[in-house]
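Recall the central idea of this unit: under ordinary conditions, the amino acid sequence of a chain determines the structure it adopts. In this exercise we apply that idea directly, starting from the sequence alone.
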Amino acid sequence: MELLQKATNLLRECTDALLALLGFGVIAQILFGATVPFVQLDVVGSVVDVTNQLGSEGLVGLVAVWVLAHVIQKK
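Accordingly, the structure predicted from this sequence is:
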């Protein structure tokens, strides 16, 4: 049981780090424009694409958004 709790904590910390990087990428792209030298991809465009895909899926997309929001808010 202790191993499962350690793995869960590790995954939670990785998720927090990735969310922080995503936020940094969005803010950097807003401040510096589409060509941020140290971010080699279009972060805002990727977020918009994922949002559009989830929105086009109807109920499944809403459930996915609910699950993601629950994971992000659960601390």
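Residues 2-32 form the longest helix (31 residues).
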